[in-house]
Amino acid sequence: MKPTLYGLELSEAQTLIQSIEEPAYRAGQLLAWLYQKHISKLDEAKTLTAALRAKLTQTHDLAGLTFAEDFEGGRGDSHKFLFKTRDDRLLESVLISQQGRQTVCVSTQLGCKIGCVFCASGKGKFGRNLTAGEIIEQIVWIEKKIKMPVTNVVFMGMGEPLDNFEATMKALRILQAEWGLAMGGRRITVSTSGITPKIVEFVKLNEGRVRLSVSLHSSIEAKRSELVPINKKYTLKELVEALDKIHHELKRDITFEYTLIRDVNDSDEEARGVAQIASRLHAKVNIIPYNPIREMDFRTPEKPRIDAFVHALEDKGVRVTVRQTAGREINAACGQLRLDREKE
Question: For a tag on the chain, would you pick the N or C end, based on fewer CB atoms within 10 A?
């Protein structure tokens, strides 16, 4: 299988262009056609000579993804996109259109090895890591579909971004580079389940340009190990200590994602524990009412319970947001659509 042009960085494009004995400036032209004009066929790159396009076609495929299908939420503010890879696997992305922002939630893996018990991504067999090109192409495809720029990107789809570290970091470089998609780092968020050593490395490498979000889901060590099995390897205590260092020494803001599940992690005890951790780190908490998945018995808390949990945090001075469930109507739980299609 040929490598793809989508996913090239400037230095790689320059090396490629020089290897086929073309002028170095052609590299910048090529990347502009890819990342700024979003071509679907190499023949659309009219400033590249026919001879150059022919050479590139011999050595590279243009892209690694093809569009499969999409679904619109009933309120029109959410879309689910399904893509097919060249090895006939499926991946999904979500677009949320709210408050003038077009936010794309990208996947980084085909499936997920972390195995959070409430998440559809970990159900079924793990496929493989996505390439940087496949990560970037999700954004490119969606921009072409909606005919407007994506304003924000969150790495919160299928997979654990820091378990696919090199491809994630490369995709982030392409996203932010002037020769790439030229998106400001503060408009990008990477979410992790808590691979503690990689979190520290990630923060140091991106120098705070990209926002960090950590999936908490429980303030109790044993409970978190049940919900997020990687906690058995990288404990909550170790995670909080690392985040404390990141906040106080590296001056980086932290956001916690907390999936609120009825009668599992929505107790007053949990609320007190979350408030204690968030206060220590001056962290924001994003409450995500559980998105029901057919294969699982977990349930969404009733609104009074959600409100009580939120108020318990706010009473301790914690900044709290509650994620709107725009995706529920279109099975937007991570990996749900992919699971459905693979069963057909």
Answer: C
Cα–Cα dist 214/14, whole Å: 36
| Assigned CATH for 65-343 | 3.20.20.70
Q: CA 210, 3, 105, 181 torsion: positive or negative?
A: positive
Could you read off the pLDDT of 61-113 as tens digits, one per residue? 999 999 999 888 656 688 999 999 999 999 999 999 988 899 999 999 999 99
86 Cβ neighbours under 8 A, 6+ residues apart: 1, 61, 64
| Res 74: pLDDT | 58
Q: Which residues are catalytic?
A: 92, 334
Nearest one of 331, 274, 279, 258 to 73, comparing CA atoms: 331
Asked if 65 contacts 85 with a C-beta cutoff of 8 angstroms, the reply is yes
R_g over Cα of the chain: 21
10-59: what CATH class?
mainly alpha
CB 167 within 8 A of CB 132: yes
β-bridge pairing 78-85 and 65-72: antiparallel
Residue 292 pLDDT = 84
Residues (pLDDT < 70) of the chain are 73-76, 122, 324-344
DSSP 84-106: EETTS-EEEEEEEEETTEEEEE-
Whether 41 and 293 have beta carbons less than 8 Å apart is answered as no
pLDDT (0 to 100) of residue 121: 75
The CA distances from residue 86 to 122, 166, 183, 202, 286, in Å, are 22, 21, 27, 29, 36
Q: Domain residue spans in the chain? A: 10-59, 65-343
Q: How many CB atoms lie within 10 A of CB 293?
A: 18
Torsion 11-17-20-22 (CA) sign: negative
